[in-house]
Sequence to fold (282 residues):
Amino acid sequence: MAVSELTSDDSSFRWGNRTYLMGVINVTPDSFSDGGQFNSVEAAVAQAQRMVKAGVDILDIGGQSTRPGAAQISLEEELERTIPVIEAICRNVSDRVTLSIDTTRVAVARSAIAAGANWLNDISGGTYEPEMLTLPGELNCPIVLMHLRGTPETMQSLTDYGDLMGELVTCLGAQAQKVIDAGAQPEQIILDPGIGFAKTYEQNIEILRQLPKLRALGYPLLVGPSRKSFIGQILDQPDPKQRVWGTAAACCGAIASGADILRVHDVAEMRDVCRVADAIWR
Fold:
């Protein structure tokens, strides 16, 4: 695995050296596994502090639920949910952690970077608002581009692929090139295959097995298997919070297949998983 370097405002990431952890902080009332737990500034900051203590590398702040069937909230509401949290985390949490804004909206992305966020994380891969693809070059920040069909309301009816990995490679490669054409450097781009987003149980497994096909594009990979429904299906476990060790197994598989970042809810547990898996595969 090639080692390249990406530097944000406050962190240096050397891809291939080890697996990095992105901790999920959903400031929403309705996210699939932790909705309502952290949707106040105080609760979100406390969770951020716990994650930093547990060894997280990136905190991902999101104000719009992307669970299957989730409806879109207004721009004003997304701003009200996320920006005060980012500002409070910047004031109260270690400045050694990178902050990511999980949004598909350019206005939220701009406001978040102005408030202190370092990365953009767009589940639509820049397809909802194409101007998002110009921001890394303009604002000098990294962006995570994820593969998604449709919207959270419609995505689970859009899982018919002739060639799943071929589409992921083609679509994400094209979106990454648009970011570069708009003035960013390749080192500012991270790709995410979109586990659970317009993907069936079997397709999620296929992605984890065939990550090297996406890795061949040359960009770092972020994978988000944490507590997802395909793990619940394997374990016959309907409660997302009881899928920690199933998540651990999926994370091991992702690392073995070349993932660079894991987006997780259970940071302390997955930090141990990463340390052992990295010792084996890296």
Summary: The chain has a mean pLDDT of 92. The two ends are 9 Å apart (CA to CA). The CA atoms of residues 42 and 85 lie 8 Å apart. The longest strand covers residues 20-26.
